[in-house]
Design goal:
The protein is mainly alpha-helical. It is built from eight helices and no strands.
C-alpha cells in the first residue's frame, strides 16, 4: 500500500490509484470515528463521504511531517465533519432542561466486550454521545467542547456526567444479565 509519504507524493503527482490507496488505508478508521459520533450507519456513511470529499479536495495543502501525518489529519477532518453534521441535526440541551439521570455504582468496564460498549455509546442521546466522544476519545476539555458546539461549559460538563451515568447503568445491567 505504501507509506504515508509515498501515498501523499503520488497523489500530489496526480496518480489516481494513490487516492484509492489513501481511501483503502484510512476509510475503516474514519468510519469507526463517524459511527462513534453519529450513532447509526447511514449518518456515519454520509459523514464519511463528506470527509473524503474534503480530504481529497484539500490534500494538496498537507505537508508531510513524518509517519502519522496523514492519519492524524484525516482523523481531525473526520471529527470536524461529524461535529458539523451534528450541529445541523442536534439541539444541544442547556443544563436546566435536561432530565436528571440517577447515580449508579461504578461499573467494571473490563467485563464488557468492546463492541457491546461501542453499541452502548452509540445509543446515548446525540448530545450526550457527542460530548462523551469529544471528552473521552478526542481528549478535549470542556472549554473546547463548549466552544465547538456553541454551548456553555457547564452544559458540556453536565452532558458528560449524564452520559457517564447512563453508561454506568447500562454496563452494570449488562454485567448482571451475563454473569
Amino acid at each position: 500500500m505504501g507509506t504515508e509519504e509515498q501515498i501523499l507524493r503520488d497523489i500530489k503527482d496526480g496518480k489516481k490509484e494513490a487516492k484509492r490507496r489513501l481511501y483503502d488505508r484510512y476509510s475503516g478508521m474514519a468510519m469507526s470515528v463517524c459511527m462513534r459520533y453519529m450513532g447509526n450507519r447511514d449518518d456515519a456513511a454520509d459523514v464519511l463521504q463528506e470527509t473524503f470529499i474534503k480530504v481529497l479536495t484539500r490534500i494538496g495543502e498537507v505537508s508531510y511531517r513524518g509517519e502519522g501525518t496523514l492519519k492524524s489529519w484525516i482523523l481531525r477532518v473526520t471529527v470536524n465533519e461529524a461535529l458539523t453534521a451534528l450541529r445541523r441535526k442536534v439541539y444541544f440541551d442547556d443544563v436546566e432542561t435536561m432530565a436528571d439521570v440517577p447515580e449508579t455504582e461504578e461499573p467494571d468496564v473490563e467485563k464488557v466486550p468492546l463492541q457491546v460498549m461501542m453499541n452502548m455509546i452509540a445509543r446515548l442521546p446525540d448530545g450526550y454521545r457527542t460530548v462523551f466522544n469529544m471528552f473521552v476519545m478526542e481528549r478535549m476539555g470542556h472549554k473546547e467542547i463548549a466552544r465547538q458546539l456553541g454551548i456553555g461549559v457547564s452544559s458540556s460538563a453536565s452532558q458528560l456526567l449524564r452520559a457517564k451515568r447512563i453508561l454506568a447503568k447500562e454496563i452494570n445491567d449488562y454485567i448482571k444479565r451475563n454473569n
